[in-house]
Amino acid sequence: MKPGDIIYGKITNILGYGAFVEADGYDGLIHISEFSDHFVRDIREYVKIGQEIKLKVIDVDEENKQIKLSYKQIHKTRGVRCRIPSYKIGFSTVKAELPKWIEKEIENV
Known about the structure:
The chain is α+β, with helices and mostly antiparallel strands. The chain is built from one helix and five strands. It starts with 5 loop residues before the first strand and ends with a helix.
């Protein structure tokens, strides 16, 4: 097992700071910050004890058979798509813009 691997693990316990997971002979922890990019009030809104879920390995401690896992990197919900406004960087002098403004005003009359 190495960082970046995608694995399935079973939730064994849930505490205020994270959820513990059993996966392929390793003891794992999903820290509360790895559930969402937003505020997480209760981890139980994401997982339940006994549930088997897909996770991403962040770090591996082979000596102690422990892993750090991420839920949000696999189950990320995308934000609202919108058009990114484009801006012209720089400026024009009033002298250069004045004829355009006058032309526009004449069209509106």
